[in-house]
Specification:
alpha+beta, two-stranded antiparallel sheet, 2 helices, 2 strands, 49% helix, 25% strand, elongated, Crooked neck-like protein 1-like
């Protein structure tokens, strides 16, 4: 079910150049908000991956290879955390 949003915008008239504020109803559908959620999930995945890689680097005493771990291996290793 869409969410009802009451918004305002400034509208100028062409005849005399004056402006007025117009109120209107806009609808926000749940599908539109999912892109924001995906960005948050992507950022969380990157954070968790970086946290895992730093933990590995501390465990093995080297940070020179931290960026080298392939995506599937990092994803599989993160499941165990």
């Amino acid at each position: 079910m869409p969410k009802k949003l009451k918004k305002r915008r400034q509208v100028s008239t062409e005849e005399d150049g004056s402006s007025r504020i117009e109120e209107f109803i806009d609808y926000l559908f749940p599908e539109e908000t999912q892109t924001t959620n995906l960005k948050i999930l992507e950022a969380a995945y990157k954070w968790k991956k970086q946290k895992f890689l730093v933990r590995l680097a501390k465990k093995f005493g080297s940070i020179s290879w931290v960026g080298y771990v392939p995506e599937p291996a990092a994803a599989a290793a993160c499941k165990d955390l």
